[in-house]
UniProtKB/TrEMBL annotation:
Originating organism: [Eubacterium] hominis
SUPFAM superfamilies in alphabetical order: Phosphoglucomutase, C-terminal domain (SSF55957), Phosphoglucomutase, first 3 domains (SSF53738)
Taxonomic placement: Bacteria, Bacillati, Bacillota, Erysipelotrichia, Erysipelotrichales
Keywords: Isomerase, Magnesium, Metal-binding, Phosphoprotein
Protein name: Phosphoglucosamine mutase
Record-linked PROSITE patterns: PGM_PMM
InterPro entries: A-D-PHexomutase_a/b/a-I, A-D-PHexomutase_a/b/a-I/II/III, A-D-PHexomutase_a/b/a-II, A-D-PHexomutase_a/b/a-III, A-D-PHexomutase_C, A-D-PHexomutase_C_sf, A-D-PHexomutase_CS, Alpha-D-phosphohexomutase_SF
Domain Alpha-D-phosphohexomutase C-terminal residues, every copy: 373-439
Amino acid sequence: MGRYFGTDGARGRANDTLTLDMAVKIGQYLGWYYGKENKRHAKILIGKDTRLSSDMFEMGLAAGATSTGAVVYLLGVCPTPSVSFLIQKEQFDCGIMVSASHNPFHDNGIKLFNGEGCKMDPAIEALIEDYIDDKSEIEIAVNEKIGHTISWDEGLELYESWLKSVVDIDLNGMNIALDLANGSATSCAAETLSALGATVEVIHSAPNGININTKCGSTHPQELQRMMKEGNYHVGFAFDGDADRLIAVDEDGNLIDGDHTMYICGCYMHEKGILHDDVVVTTVMSNLGLYHALTAKGIKYEQTAVGDKYVFECMREHGYSVGGEQSGHIIFNEHENTGDGLMTALKLLEIMVNTKKSLKELSEDLFIYPQLLINTPVKDKHKAMEDPELLKVVDEVARELGDEGRILVRPSGTEPLVRVMVEAKTDELCEQYVNQVIDFINAKGL
């Protein structure tokens, strides 16, 4: 982990831990670095989500990049995966997404992509950090070398057209409910599904800068679940703030999370003979029930550390077809380098249309073990994770659970928290074991 960049870009409270000055310097360094590499004006793409501070950071990044000679294309409000896709399609040197994903509106983030549309090399992020900390100098552009910006509305149209060409299905007669989280999905989700023939009803599609992710979207799908129970819809989809992940809801209002989605897609691709090496890639946070269900279908799995970055690295190294996270980041390796909520929705719809089955039917062989995840604040998350007494308590719980459950304790990637997660046969057991660990952390004052 760098000084400013974590596993998913630089993230923090706007104008507090993430500042306009940092944005300007990130833009300057990228404009200079790629200009020098290619001996021409760097070509940089910037997208943003709907939070209040996104305009400020977009402008700061663009100002910085143009000051070192870059030509900056402004995509406006868009899903994070559209930036990754368009970098590759239109041969940008790099791309930037201004978003803090599922975080509250007062946070923001600056996520960097390289020329392949993948997450930026940490070595380049380290060079940017040195520049932010005034440990290096770069050349500012003068005269005709100063760059300029281009408002690029066509970019989103290219992305939508591509999605419709990849998943070419007729959704006539399909009734779909969408929760757009007052975020990036408002830019294209309803239009894309309507264009394929679906009847679409949307909620949380009026962003005002501060309502992104507020009691809505993939982290708070309760209203969508209620809508599914009361209305007459075939399926519901809830996106997160920057639309790179998706939680679905079946016709009875049951949640279809990333584990369900990986199961449904993995089984479908396995039956079609297009699941490379018959492997699905998950993180260690996936439910024990997913592993049991995949094994029963003759499908193998690989586990990675938490973070879609690690899932993608494993998939790319071995050529695996599908992988993702329980939280709804799903990557389809054939098409994209990153999770994409809209692509995931289209893939689920494709399977529903082709099998003539509902999401409930498609996931009926999957038993999800009860799971409890509690975040507990600590003074130093890394020191806490190295505490021998805490590790001993965690080992004891793991021994007691045996094959009928598991415990996972890990530091948060972005906050001073330790996450304690237990899966077991009953909710009571989950609670008992999670509390055992948290009580120990609190008693010891870690």
